[in-house]
Amino acid sequence: MIQTILLKNRPAGKPKLSDFEFKKEDKNLTIKDGELLLETLYVSVDPYLRGRMRDAKSYVEPFELNKPINSGVIAKVLESKNDKFEKGDHVSGMLDWKTQQISNGKGLHKVDSSKADLSAYLGILGMTGLTAYFGLTEIGKPKEGETLVISGAAGAVGSVVGQIGKIKGLRVVGIAGTDEKVEMLKTKFGFDAGINYNTTEDMKAAINEAAPNGVDVYFDNVGGEISDAVLFNINKFARTVNCGAIAVYNETETPKSISVRPFLIKNSASMQGFIVSNFEEKFPEGINQLSKWLAEEKLTYSETIVEGFENIPQAFIDLFDGKNKGKMVVKV
Amino acid sequence: MIQTILLKNRPAGKPKLSDFEFKKEDKNLTIKDGELLLETLYVSVDPYLRGRMRDAKSYVEPFELNKPINSGVIAKVLESKNDKFEKGDHVSGMLDWKTQQISNGKGLHKVDSSKADLSAYLGILGMTGLTAYFGLTEIGKPKEGETLVISGAAGAVGSVVGQIGKIKGLRVVGIAGTDEKVEMLKTKFGFDAGINYNTTEDMKAAINEAAPNGVDVYFDNVGGEISDAVLFNINKFARTVNCGAIAVYNETETPKSISVRPFLIKNSASMQGFIVSNFEEKFPEGINQLSKWLAEEKLTYSETIVEGFENIPQAFIDLFDGKNKGKMVVKV
Fold first, then answer.
1. Which member of A34, B15, B158, B292 has the lowest number of beta carbons within 10 Å of its beta carbon?
2. B227 to chain A: which residues are within 8 Å by CB?
3. A-chain residues within 8 Å CB-CB of B220?
4. Going from the N-terminus, what domains does chain B have, and what CATH number goes with each?
């Protein structure tokens, strides 16, 4: 039996289980020349998918209603009539939320289960690791001795950004939502300081204390008020990397914040958004560097693995309550 | 008799005449070796001076209370005991709002009254021209065929930015506050389209109409709601040059706007603030290029010249009501 998850409604505010629909079909899939039959092993759930559930112009096409949702998936090749892949291969790619599906192989890459756990290819060696790597190095342009502040620091991207920051010789300050996460930033990921935004009254002052020389690079995974507080502490020529705005993704009205413009002007500072695919040509370089650091044990990662295909929607919803530590992955 | 203008109060909101104080002294200034006696001919009044009247960290030191204000000035050398300057020379520099003053020559540059009107050295061949030139070329990075939108387009900086945009082969759209200014953008400065924000109900739609291919470069002289409306029309990889935020300089609370972050993320777009002195090393290149375009009649400029030293404070205040066309200069 093949299961599929469809987008039933465009969520208003925070996504609900009722925005998703499960379809079960009792059929056998048959492949033609050039095609592959794939069995889904791991599914990546990511905050940016919320944007694709909206019916609005964005960097990727919106999901269609009553069609399968897709995201990063690790699958096993059950049958192949495609020269590039063999039965038993593991592949990674953007695939539908289906337990089995047919692919023409386009956009799929083989992954090596002997080098790392398969789920790592959705995280540290996949889009999240590459997002951290290129966002920080290409946009943040970190220099030794500078101070890097990261919001959503205990998340999949944030925890990698901080570790790369340490490798590059920066002071690294992470902002997260529980004491446990803040502790993990310091003990597991080697951050210099951490701030729990849920228990801190004056974020502006707390950032000032944790970044006494001011903020040179701000890797922003959340947007919203936390990011406003960081602005008061930026240095001349500070760079903000706008990676995510999870704090405002679920807002139904255009969200407001303090005006960033006077801060940018008086500090000759910049803000830049990006999507990891802007750096697609450099992906091999990125994966190579991340694998090397991983092998040298300079990088470590967290993942939250939820079991069961039927739990994909809930795992996605839980992202917005910060229930994950590191990359959130569903094992099918 | 020597007159001086002092900062009496830090303005709350829009500056008032009572925030300034005039001092008159009946004395003769005597210079020592290395010094110059200067007579002020033209004084530049600029929106950024509002920021220096605040008691807050910024890119330049705040003005001190009960001390003279300073800004860009063109002066004539009345006497010289400095090898670099002779009696009768015209110089430009950051000088006090005084009818006469002594200088050690530091930071002063000779200007050539045979090549351009003296007031031009406070405008098109001074900080405003250089601000337009470096802001657009170094931060906006305009490419032929792209669309450039400029707010405060009829202002000193904006009108030069638009003309450079045309020289570089872009579609240029200007936003200004009166029909007369909009007309001038098109007839005098060669803009492709203009929008009067005071008579336009739906700025978002008006920008969409004037920039049918979307906005690639936004040169922002105003901040505030106009800039928010532009955000809805930016293209992938759009660059915003944050040059000024006159719309919010007078606000007493930290100003709010829509959150720019989701727009930057979904368009891989950037915003960058700057101050012209960041490019100080390249000033000769900039002045050279601007002079060349001026001589070739590819550039023209507007200036509003107010007469009388005693009218400097009012001329400054009038900037915030948009009473100037182009560079606002006071002829002493």
1. B292
2. 261
3. 261
4. 2-122+303-331 (3.90.180.10), 127-277 (3.40.50.720)
